[in-house]
Amino acid sequence: QNLLFNESDYSHEYPFCWRCKSPLLYYAQASWFIKMSALRHQLIKNNQKINWVPEHLKEGRFGEWLREVKDWALSRERYWGTPLPVWECKKCDHRQVVGSLEDLNKNRADAPATLILMRHGEAESNIKGFCSSYPEQKLNPLTERGRKQVLASVKKIKPRSGEKIAAIYSSDLLRARETAQIVADELKIKNIIFDPRLREINTGEFSGRPVAEYQNYFGSFKDRFARPAPQGESWLDVAGRVRDFTLEVSKKHLGKKIIVVSHMDPLFLIQTSGGVWGLDETELAYQTTVKNSSLVLGTAEFAEFKLNNWPYDAGGNLDLHRPYVDAVSLKCSKCSGKMERVKDLVDVWFDSGAMPWASQNKKSKIPTSLKLRGASKNQKLNKSEFPADYICEAIDQTRGWFYTLLAVSTALGEGAPFKNVISLNHVLDDKGEKMSKSKGNIVDPWSVGEKVGFDAMRWYFYAVNTPGDNKLFNLRDIENKKRRFADTLVNSFLFLETYHDRAPAALSARPDILDKWVLERLDNLETEVSGYFEAYNITSAARAIEDFVDELSNWYIRRSRRKFQKQNMDGEKLAAQNTLTEVLKRTAVLLAPFMPFLAEWLYQNLKNLEPGSCISQSVHLERWPIKKTQIKKSEVMKVMDKARAVVALGLAERARSGLRVRQPLNALYLSPSDYNLVGNVLYLVAEELNVKKVLSDRKVVKDSVVLDTELTAELKEEGLVRELTRNINEMRREAQLTPEDKIILYYDVRAGGDFREL
């Protein structure tokens, strides 16, 4: 008809399923929303109270999300999940949001049945103290006092004018039948319906025997729930049958009154488990022990009971999910019409955001009239648990759990839901690609843990980089971290164990500057790590411990080796031994949050090696060190820092000259100021750099060194001896010899080479 004006191709983005890659079709649909845009300012304000790690997320990825916050599409068209608590009138379209289970009772569409729950009057079993269940082993009629009790109660039950008792239901045990008959005669009700579901709990082999024997069979009230007496019933069994009865007669007699005559346990369970209050076994056990509890009826006592307008599953259990919640109808407050729940469900992310309130039972499902523990109507969040001190998840939770917690908390006027966030970036493969099953590049963490140890894997993630950075996972990196840190720490203990000696009681320790330095260095480390922990800077804390262990091994132990290797114990060796024991113990305490197994291994081995050094049962029961106000910089620390800096410069000079440390040199020259500062530890510098002497020279600039690199014949010969010694020690290690093992050494001089001259 020549109506088409133009036809052309149009390129546009098309959605695909992220999982199966199938093309998707978008279409418009009516949904329920939470107007988060109205809370934008408050969301941003609450975010300012949160400490973010990494810090840039606060104003970056997360802050930008809040500044551009969209209204929350709350509803979902699924079958399973939290039902949207909105009821809609089929007559006038009025909608009502339900805020609690009590609202379901208050707005119920049909008047509920009223059950007058009455316990039988006093019987012979109550006087003589024996169990009486079906089949009755002994004749158990009402006593004369019991009949009078029933008559007195009936006078209180008599309906007001115009009211009518629709029916009497009763247990078929003798004492209940007699009670029901008295009630029927007094109220002029002809028909009594005997229902076996109302019988007393079946005490099995204890029927006819003393009640005390039955009670002693159970360890506690809670024990009665799942554990029946031999050939008898448990409380769970009784709860099931009285629950079925309650649901059936309540539905049958809507808007009417009925009398139910039964026994103490079944009537108690009707009001709790049978009444579908949702009480767990612990709470039910508690209720049975409450003094003067209104739920435990005395002989001939009664109580009114109305079944809640709540959703129950096929077993009579409270279940707020579909399809049961959809069967609950309400009365419209506008036109008195019938209201039914809309079929939508709530976004599961709302459940995640409501977690603090769900776990705290803020709006209890149990009516406050029962006065149950934890069921206060206006219960506030426990301030010791909210806001949370700390939350940790992957970076994608900036649009997920981090946000939903803040959104729900802000909407409820509760402020920020957490104080600190550690947001983790992703673990990628060694090429920087995302791990996925389809790519076949997933690494099984369990197999890695079995291979290198789970502590080593934990340490790698703590120390390799900051939480907000991607991790390019490589097994070799973990092995390197383990070798450089964990193995170094283990070897430090093995060194102590190898040279450890018992000291005479009268011997006094004589600590030298190295001992004082390492203890002060450890004091500073404890303050440093505690500060990092308080700032949630885990990576810096781990790296600080890593640096200290390196200094412990490559400076303190290296320079203290001769003290430990002394054959006889003296004050100097005792001081070094005590110092290293204390240092390793305190390091284990600092390491415990990071590497719990290695820390415990180290702690227990120190305890065995030096009884009294570790007084707690476990390193994880040790007190965390008290944080000092600031890092100490004593004279000892200044001297040792300068000495180590001089050594670093000297090693660099050796490397530039191509001279290995094993080759002795004649002298090292320092500036006068540096020389004077390290005067007390010049011997350490000389030993570490393998020079004969350390001298002062005005020509040397401050913070620099000059090496005398001239090699005399004597120096060369000494270097050859050191090289030979190193080779022999390497061979001893390969042969797994201990220092006590003696060897016979053969050297073939026919091959020539440098060693021939020796």
UniProtKB/TrEMBL annotation:
InterPro entries: aa-tRNA-synth_Ia, Anticodon_Ile_ABEc, His_Pase_superF_clade-1, His_PPase_superfam, Ile-tRNA-ligase_type2, M/V/L/I-tRNA-synth_anticd-bd, PG/BPGM_mutase_AS, Rossmann-like_a/b/a_fold. The keyword Aminoacyl-tRNA synthetase applies. SMART domains: PGAM. Keywords: Aminoacyl-tRNA synthetase, ATP-binding, Ligase, Nucleotide-binding, Protein biosynthesis. Residues 515-659 form the Methionyl/Valyl/Leucyl/Isoleucyl-tRNA synthetase anticodon-binding domain. GO terms for biological process: isoleucyl-tRNA aminoacylation. Substrate binds at residues 119-126, 175. Residues 25-109, 325-466 form the Aminoacyl-tRNA synthetase class Ia domain. One of its GO terms (molecular function) is ATP binding. This is Class I tRNA ligase family protein.
